[in-house]
Every structure is written in structure tokens, then in C-alpha cells.
């Protein structure tokens, strides 16, 4: 009879690293995203509204428009670089003494406060000032980046509208100038036509005078003796032609003289 085999010793439990657990939890969240509660949605909405107020009026009101737009672009670039490579130390910090950072984030009102809300906090290393980002503010970074994109889209539409308005105004000015030019050309054409008509009329009058001049000498006119004078009722006649005197006429004249 065989002796019973000794009981086997329990196998050691496999150890799982915290990194693997975090990765598994992240995959699970991505595959099966949890539905947000009403309280969570309200909290997210308030967070977005806070970022919006930090942009407008926090940044846009105290700074000129071009400077505010430039600073928002810088903030968006920092945020997007960090979202794309959250573990890259190069994107997790910036120095406030850097020329570009100082001009775009430090010197402009409200901009550095927005960076702090994204998760950047002041720190000192080797007597050098830094602003470092912490991973626990990842949600703030995501929401803040979304709001930055939202305002950049608004600026883009406003710029496009301004360009369209500018083109429309230029087109209106060109149309007005063309209208003036056409009106001038019409006036000039009308004047030329009027001058041509006057020239033709002058030539016609001159031609008529040349035609009528010699013809008048050939028109038969009544003799002067038959022209009646107004108020007389008689025609003026020329004296009768001279008739030679006969003997009888001389005898009658002599008799008349003797009487």
C-alpha cells in the first residue's frame, strides 16, 4: 500500500505592479466610460465657465486685442504640447524669465493666472524660478485647452468676417468709382454728340445760304410802278413815254395861250 503523497505547498501569488494596475484601469475606463452624474456635469460646466471668464474678460479686456490673441496662442501651444506628451519633462515646466514666456505670459494681465489654473505652480530649482505642471491637474488641463480652442475659433471667425467686410467695402468703393467713371464717360459722349449735332446744323445753314444767294437774282420781281403804297389805293406809274407833237397840238396850245 502506497503511502499518501505529502500535500503540495501553495504557489506564491503573482505580484502586479501599480503601473500595470493603472494601465488596466485606464483601458477599462476607455472601453466602458462611466456615465457622469448630474452633479459631475454641473461641476464640469462650472469649471468651463471659470476658464471662459478667465479669458473674457480676464485676458481680453485689459490687453490689446493683438496681444491677447498672441498670449492665447502661446497658452494653447504649451497646453497641447503637454497633452500630447504628458510625461515629457520639457513640456512640464517653463521659466518665467524666458524672453517669450515673460512677454506672453508674465507681462500680460491675466495670462499667468490662466497657466496656474491649467496646473502650473511656481517652484525654485538651483535658485532658478520655474512653473511646473502636476499630473493631478490633467482634467483642468483638458478643460482649459478646450476653452482656449473655443476662443481661438471665435477669433478666427471674427477675422474671416472682418476680411469679408473689408473686401465688400473695397468692392463697394470700386463699384462707386466705376459708376462715377461711367457717368463721366456718358456726359462726355453726350457732349460730343451735341457738339456734332451743332456742327452739322452750322454746316447745313451755311450750305443753305450758298444755295439761296444766286437764286434770288433770278427770281422775277414785280416792277416798282406796280407796287402799291399803303394808304393810297393807287399805283405809282412811270411818266408816259414822250410823244412827238403834231400841228394840231401846237395850234391848240397857241389858241389856249391867246385866250
What topology emerges from the helices and strands here?
Blueprint: H1 18-31, H2 38-55, H3 65-84, E1 93-94, H4 99-106, H5 111-118, E2 120-125, E3 128-133, H6 138-218, H7 247-258
Antiparallel strand pairs: 1-3, 2-3
What does the model show?
The protein is mainly alpha-helical and 259 residues long. Helix content is 62%, strand content 5%. It has seven helices and three strands, in the order H-H-H-E-H-H-E-E-H-H. The chain has helices at 18-31, 38-55, 65-84, 99-106, 111-118, 138-218, 247-258, and strands spanning 93-94, 120-125, 128-133. Strands 1-3-2 form a three-stranded antiparallel β-sheet. Helix 2 (38-55) crosses helix 6 (138-218). It is elongated, with a radius of gyration of 59 Å. The relative contact order is 0.06.
Which terms would index this structure?
259 residues; mainly alpha; three-stranded antiparallel sheet; 7 helices; elongated
Outline: elongated
Q: Could you tell me the mean pLDDT?
A: 80
How large, in whole angstroms, is the Cα Rg? 59 Å
The portion of residues assigned to helices is: 55-70%
